[in-house]
Amino acid sequence: MGRFYAAALMLLIAWPAAGQDALTPPPGARKLFEARAAGVQVYVCQEKRAGEEGQTSFAWELAGPDAALFSEDGLPLGRHAKGPSWTLNDGSSVTAQLIAKAPAPAPGAIPWLLLKVTAHEGKGRLDGVSFIRRVETSGGMAPDGGCGASRRGETERVPYTAVYQFYGP
């Protein structure tokens, strides 16, 4: 019995570190800067069809984020939006695609992510960014229930915060 509890405790202690390790950018990528995000995750009540019988159910689906980005000093830095995209006040922007995901250590928080940049626009601080990591999340999970035929197409805006770390060569 004692060994089981010790093993379970070790697993719980190691879990956040394991989540972070799974989201480590490839060798050679270094952290260029990070930004704190405060905003909402926007969810839409969507109809789902399942199986050959075409049974209908409804679920909240992520439409995208809508968040302000702040520098480490707390100064306005830019926006994070659907795409996913990040646009800084200097005119630079990137879009990215998900390559890895891990559960957040905090209960009720959206997952931690590793994303690979797929496109750059403008000139500025995001020029050299090739990977983005979302960590330290709080909130933002899809609403529990409340999505049905009478709410089809309606949106819910769920507050969240996170840290986005920007990596490049």
Detail the topology: elements first, then pairings:
Blueprint: H1 2-22, E1 30-50, E2 55-70, E3 76-81, E4 85-88, E5 93-102, E6 112-121, E7 131-139, E8 155-168
Antiparallel strand pairs: 1-2, 1-8, 2-3, 3-4, 4-5, 5-6, 6-7, 7-8
In short:
The chain is mainly β. Helices cover 12% and strands 53% of the residues. The longest helix is centred in the first third of the chain and has 21 residues, at 2-22.
> What is the terminal separation in angstroms?
49 Å
The helix/strand series, from N terminus to C terminus, equals HEEEEEEEE
CA-based gyration radius: 19 Å
Largest sheet: 8 strands, antiparallel, barrel
Query: What best-fitting shape do the alpha-carbon axes yield?
Result: elongated
The whole-number mean of residue pLDDT values reads: 86
The count of helical stretches stands at: 1
Q: What level of helicity do the residues show?
A: 10-25%
Number of strands: 8
Major sheet strand order: 1-2-3-4-5-6-7-8
- Report the uncertain regions: 1-20
The structure class reads mainly beta
Q: Strand portion, in percent?
A: over 45%
